[in-house]
Design a protein that fits this description.
- GO terms for molecular function: D-ribulose-phosphate 3-epimerase activity; metal ion binding.
- Belongs to the ribulose-phosphate 3-epimerase family.
- It is a single chain.
- This protein is α/β, with parallel strands linked by helices and 224 residues long.
- It has helices spanning 18-27, 50-59, 77-81, 101-114, 158-173, 187-196, 215-223; strands spanning 5-8, 32-38, 63-69, 89-95, 117-122, 140-144, 178-182, 200-203.
- The chain is globular, with a radius of gyration of 16 Å.
- It binds D-xylitol-5-phosphate and zinc ion.
């Protein structure tokens, strides 16, 4: 029985060789792929949208974990998310800091009606207490352990306290959300997040890219 879920982020892939990287992940029996969407507004970077997602899900059967680092303006949450609702999209994360209270509620209701796991993310400078009132209604909480926007950054330690306090809140209230971490995972920080009580681990540069030679070994270390 695997103790932790691993979700490689393909943000750090070389897009000229994306198929090669996806094939490697498939061979390593990866179930989830973390798909980072950025808007050059909420974060200072742009990544990819529904088209590449559609190409991936048409070819592979990975469960897709969407991480939307975006603000939603001039569209309803439903209008914004609709093009992303493709085969095998199982979970969508949006940022607490990027949305208004009404948008968060709209997002949670939207996921519920489409039977998708609703997940909220908090940035390194955001306290767990800010999202307390939503914890009852969501299936996952993503603790950012780097500033969102880029792969390959250094792990920020305050995420460890957030992970343990979320775990405590979950136990005390009998909530069922999973705790996910994203950013700066490597051999060393992996142990720290595992000890702190995380359930799902996102890793970009540690797992995806031509320099990763021992993928299967790294995956099994993460899965525990
Ligand atoms: C960063 C993204 C991450 C990123 C992680 O904003 O949300 O998913 O790909 O990359 P590493 O694991 O290299 O920090
Ligand atoms: Zn991410």
């Amino acid at each position: 029985m695997k103790k932790f879920i691993v979700a490689p982020s393909i943000l750090t892939a070389n897009f000229l060789n994306l198929k090669e990287d996806l094939d490697k992940l498939k061979k390593a029996k990866i179930e989830w792929i973390h798909y980072d969407v950025m808007d050059y507004n909420f974060v200072p970077n742009l990544s990819f949208g529904p088209k590449i997602l559609s190409d991936i899900v048409n070819e592979y059967s990975f469960k897709m974990d969407l991480h939307l680092m975006v603000k939603v303006v001039d569209l309803s949450i439903e209008e914004y998310l609709e093009p992303f609702l493709l085969k095998n999209v199982e979970q969508i994360t949006m940022h607490y800091e990027a949305l208004s209270e009404t948008q968060i509620e709209e997002f949670i209701n939207f996921c519920k009606s489409r039977k998708i796991k609703a997940s909220l993310s908090i940035n390194p400078e955001t306290e767990v207490s800010s999202i307390k009132k939503y914890l009852k209604y969501i299936q996952n909480i993503l603790v950012m352990s780097v500033k969102p926007g880029f792969g390959g950054q250094k792990f920020i330690e305050n995420s460890l306290t957030k992970i343990s306090s979320l775990k405590e809140i979950r136990e005390m209230n009998n909530y069922s959300f999973l705790i996910q971490v994203d950013g700066g995972i490597n051999e060393k920080t992996l142990k720290l997040v595992q000890e702190a009580g995380v359930d799902m681990i996102v890793a970009g540069s540690y797992l995806v890219g031509s320099n990763v030679k021992d993928l299967e070994e790294r995956v099994s270390k993460i899965e525990g």
